[in-house]
Amino acid sequence: MSDLRPRSRSIAGIARHGQLRASFPVTTVLKFVAAALAVALVSGVSIAGIAVSQITNNIKTVALPGEKQGPPPGLGSFEGGFNVLIVGSDTRANQGAQFGKDDGVLNDVTMLVHVSKDQSNAVAVSIPRDMVVPIPACPKEDGKGNYNAMSAQPINNTLAYGGLACTVLTVEALTGLKIPFAALITFQGVIQMSTAVGGVPVCINGPLVDRYSGIDLPAAGTYTLAGADALAFLRSRHGVGDGSDLGRISSQQVFLSSLVRTVKSNDTLTNFTKLYGIATAASQNMTLSNSLKNINTMASLALVLKGIPLNRISFVQYPGTTGAGGVYPGKVAPLTSVANALFAKIKADEPFTLDSGTGRGSVANPTAPASPAPSASAAPAPSGSAAAATTPPPAGAVTGVLGQTAADYTCSKVNR
C-alpha cells in the first residue's frame, strides 16, 4: 500500500441529517490534558506553573450524582483501578457556521475507559450511539427533582435528557461499574487537539468519500489527518464498513489506536509546546466532572495511563447487533449474554483476549510492522485472516466481542 501525501482541504456546509450524527476521537482526551499538566507540574519551571493555571481556569465543570470531594492524591500517587466516561457532544453552539444550526444536543460518542486495579491493562468500551437501553431517573440540571426513567431509548438521548450526569447514570446501570470521573468534548476540541498533536496517520483500504461528513480521500493508502479532516473522518458513517453505527465504531478504532501510538511517542510526550497546545485546546472545549478539576487528580491518572504498554490498551465495542425487531428497528440491540461475559472480565480485572476480529469497519493493515507475540488483553489476527482461521480462541478469550489493541495496525474498510 502506498503512502499518500495529505492535502489541505476545507470542509464547508456539513449538514446535520437524520441518520448521521457526529463522532470524534475522545477516548484519550483525558490522557491528553492530564499528560500535559503532569509534565508541567513535574518540570518545576515557573512558566509551566503559569501555563497550568491558565489551563485550569479554562475548564468547565459539572457535578455527578453522589459525587464527593475528598482530598486530591499526591502527584503520581493514584492507587488502584478507575473508570472514566468520555462523552462527545454534537452541539452546534459556538462550533462554527460550517456545522449549521441546531438546538439539539446528543451524545454521539460514549466510551467507558476502565483501568485495572494493578494498572497493567486499560479497556475502552465504545457504546453505539444507536443502542436502545433503559434510562434511569436522572437529576434535573437545576437540582430540583428528577426526570422520569424510560424503558427503551437510544443512549445518545441521555445528554439532552439530563446532561452529562444522566449519561453517567445510564452507563453505570448498563455496565454495573461505578464511574467517578467523566469528561465531555465538542467538535472544536477534536479539530484543535488533532492539529496540536501534529495529525494522526490513518490507513484506508480504498477511496473514502462521504458527502455527509465531508471526508474525501481519493485512494487507498495512509493519510495524516488533522483538524477538520480528522473530524470528518471520525464522523463518517456512510463511507465505512456497511454504513452502520457499528461499522463506524471499528473505523474510529483505527484512528484511536494510531492516536495512542502517536501520543505515546517520545516526540509528543517530551515536547512541552505540543503538550501545552493539546491541553489548551482540550480545556477550552471540554466539561469535566468536579472530580477531575484538581490538577493532581488529572496528572495522577495520566501517569497511570502513560505506563500501560500498547498491547494492553484495548478498544472494544459494547456487544450489539442491527436488524432486530421489537423496539429496535433501525437501531442497535444489545447482545446481553456477550456483554455480561465481557463485563464479568472487566469487573474482575481479568485480562482477556479477543477472538472475533476488529469489526465491520476495519481490516488488518497488510503493511503493518511485525507484531509482538499476543498477550493478555491483546486481540489476535482479525477474523477472515489465515491466522484466525487456523488458530482456536485462546484461553481467556471473550467470544463475540469485536475490537483491537493500540498495538494493532489496521485500516478503515471503505463502504464500496
Describe it.
It is a single chain. This protein has 416 residues and is an alpha+beta fold. It has a domain of 285 residues: LCP protein (Aminopeptidase), CATH 3.40.630.190. 31% of the residues lie in helices and 20% in strands. It contains 11 helices and 22 strands. It is globular, with a radius of gyration of 20 Å.
Layout of helices and strands, plus pairs?
Blueprint: H1 29-43, H2 46-58, E1 60-62, E2 82-89, E3 107-115, E4 122-126, E5 132-135, E6 138-139, E7 146-147, E8 150-154, H3 158-175, E9 181-185, H4 187-196, E10 200-204, E11 208-210, E12 215-217, E13 221-225, H5 227-235, H6 245-263, H7 266-269, H8 272-284, E14 286-289, H9 295-306, E15 313-317, E16 320-321, E17 333-334, H10 336-347, E18 353-354, E19 362-364, H11 386-390, E20 397-398, E21 403-405, E22 410-412
Parallel strand pairs: 1-14, 2-9, 4-15, 18-20
Antiparallel strand pairs: 2-3, 3-4, 5-8, 6-7, 9-14, 10-13, 11-12, 15-21, 16-17, 19-22
Strand content: 15-25%
Name the CATH superfamily classification of the domain at 29-200 and 238-350: LCP protein
- Compute the number of helices: 11
> Helix content range of the residues, please?
25-40%
What does the oligomeric state look like here? single chain
Query: In angstroms, what is the radius of gyration?
Result: 20 Å
- Placed side by side, the strands forming the largest sheet appear as 1-14-9-2-3-4-15-21
